[in-house]
Amino acid sequence: MAKNKIVIIGGGASGLVAAIVAARNGAKVTILERKDRIGKKILATGNGRCNLTNMHCSSKYFHGGDKDFITNILEQFDVNKTLEFFSELGIYPINVDSGKVYPNSLQASSVLDVLRLEVDRLKINIECNAEVTKIERSNNFVVYTKDKKYYGNKIIIAAGGKSSPDLGSNGSGFTLAKSLGHTIKKPIPSLVQLKSGADFLKQIKGVKINALAKIIDENNEIMRKEYGEILFTDYGISGPPILQISRIASDYLNDNKRVSVDIDFFHDLSEKELDQILLKRLTSMPNKTIQENFIGFINKRLINIIIKEAGIAMNKKSADIKKEERNKLVSILKKFSLIITGTNQWNQSQVTAGGIITSEIDEVTLESKKVKDVYLAGEVIDVDGDCGGYNLQWAWSSGVVAGMNASN
Ligand SMILES: Cc1cc2nc3c(=O)[nH]c(=O)nc-3n(C[C@H](O)[C@H](O)[C@H](O)COP(=O)(O)OP(=O)(O)OC[C@H]3O[C@@H](n4cnc5c(N)ncnc54)[C@H](O)[C@@H]3O)c2cc1C
Fold first, then answer.
1. What is the CATH number of domain 5-190+352-407?
2. What residue ranges line ligand 1, CB within 6 angstroms?
3. What is the pLDDT of residue 90?
4. Domain 193-343 adopts which CATH fold?
5. So where are the chain's domains?
6. What are 300-318's pLDDT values in tens digits?
7. How does DSSP classify residue 346?
8. pLDDT tens, 278-288?
9. Residue 12 CA, ligand 1 centroid: distance in Å
């Protein structure tokens, strides 16, 4: 039987593993990569440490496409198979926290290096500075870059989403898929910082606190809550819990719906318990101003903002704080609300929500239902995961499934 000749568009996480399994399965593989080198985004993952998967991976941590579709792909190349794959390439995986897996080197470059070495060993042809602009089908596929044509009998589109275009993915995968007849669900930034117009932000820029962030819809329903380190910036809020809830905000803003974030500075105390603690502080330090009283209770730079928000004079003595004022303070400390006006842009977002809709892709093989012999992998598909190794797991799983089926 003649060898399959596969052209892979995109040398990122999904494209590289697709190329490896396809070449191991006997195919002749070419990767076309628009940047000057492959795998640039991998180097930036996990703050340069590469959180390559998560031991708790399941479809519940993913959004966008159909859940059964996602499960089907994840189960074909699950976390154990992923760890085996990378271990065989030389990565010694360690489970750092909450199921997050990293290479023991804590260097994302080692993940890219082992993939690159395997790509070289398998004699996979890599063409960099080769941005694909058009795909045509005659007998075989003709894949066009600015100055060259490439031929193959199978294509894998693994061009990523629109997030962090400096690292390569500029949304051109969506344009290519659309030109083949695919429907693209509007891409929106996910795992991204949130903007707010609150005027006090400039004053507390740089403040980091451990707190519970709740994302609230226009009916005051809590849509998701996440605990962790929140960073106030001059434009809004950032930090792991904010990135985690950002997808919902992005979605709501895209639909022109109101969305806000409530921060609970004392998530492990009920309002009643917090009130008791506050009462004790006020009575045990009666001569201190409320401003002085709050020193050591909350971050110093937040004190004035919270007292002002409660409508209390800074120099009011603790002994003179009335019950209603105490209630107001408790309520602000438990529910510090920020109206969200936007998200940061593509260059700041880690992941793209939206993309090629899953109903147009075979849920077992990842072959396009629009054009035979075209396969899709990675973030170009309308599947995005939470923060924590899920997005790379999707890239590995979908890359392997696409690579295997394209080469069969
Ligand atoms: C800063 C940052 C940190 C992250 N950290 C983590 C983490 O720790 N854990 C985790 O699970 N996920 C993380 N992610 C998300 C994860 O990196 C992505 O979900 C994953 O890389 C997607 O893989 P992909 O192959 O679909 O796309 P990409 O990795 O984006 O690769 C797509 C490739 O296609 C190329 N390309 C695009 N268009 C064309 C074209 N027309 N022609 C030729 N080539 C093209 C691009 O240059 C790129 O190299 C992070 C993302 C960012 C930005």
1. 3.50.50.60
2. 9-15, 32-35, 40-41, 44-46, 50-51, 131-132, 158-160, 163-164, 167-169, 172-173, 350-351, 378-379, 389-392, 395
3. 98
4. Helicase, Ruva Protein; domain 3 (1.10.8)
5. 5-190+352-407, 193-343
6. 999 999 999 999 999 999 9
7. G
8. 999 999 999 99
9. 5
